[in-house]
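In this supplementary section we document a worked example of the pipeline. Step one takes a protein sequence of length 312 as its only input; no multiple sequence alignment statistics are reported here. Step two produces a three-dimensional model, which step three serialises into structure tokens for compact storage. The input and output of this example are shown verbatim.
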Amino acid sequence: MNAMSLSGHFLEGALLERLPAVRGRLTANAALSRVTWFGVGGPAEVLFKPADIDDLAQFLANKPADVPVTVIGVGSNLLVRDGGVPGVVIRLGREFATLQIEGERITAGAGALDGSVAKAAAAAGLGGLEFLSGVPGTLGGALRMNAGAYGAEMKDITLAVRALDSAGRLRQLDAAAMGFVYRGSAVAEDWIFVEAVLQGYSDEPGQIEARMAKIQKQRETSQPLRSRTGGSTFANPPGHKAWQLIDQAGCRGLTLGGAMVSTKHCNFLINTGNATAADLEKLGEEVRQRVRSATDIELHWEIRRIGVGNGN
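The serialised model returned by step three reads:
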């Protein structure tokens, strides 16, 4: 475990001194609650925003082997625990949000917002990517979890992916090598996606935009979009919908500290204003226990949980 101060934060600069020089930005004790949708959680021991792919590759190649690395996007489907995240947290910025369209293919950086990819495709008359307008977060996270919504998912549109392995070597992956499964992929957890080539099909921009507008209306009607939430909390078990199981177990509106199960869509947890990460995680575990007792079905977290709790 990395050294902590009495206040519970990581010792200022202790890890920075061991890291290689970069062209991007390294920040010690960086607040992560400001960049997550839940608005909770402790700091990153060090936050790294690389200048470009080469900067990231050099960092991975030269960092001490014992320093853990965690990659985050815009924090839409993420719960950072209250004790923070030891090691280096990497956040891909605008330098990794490039978009290029050639024919019916779009090449997008892993830092591009899913919604931005969908809008760019629509403007270019490319259909098939509309579902991304209903997926919060960045393309890197969507690839990692085979994100999907409204009848489509990443495996349906992904042709090729570029990723950096733990030693900073650039790897090329085709769709088969991604090993997509429901809400997951087979790629090693310590590989960092940097770019993907996606396949669309030619269509009228107006029709594409109409389908995207329908998705947006459905989201606004059924999801608590204006609350401090983390998106869908649990993956749908085979043959079931998580929200129905949660409702059946009597968890709609259930609260714990400052955390609440949404009354609008009960597969969403909400920070009502003063929740801690512990409140949210404990409430999620309570929901899992109640669903297990009521239905004999095990719910699995879809929200990614990282870091350590206070006192750990």
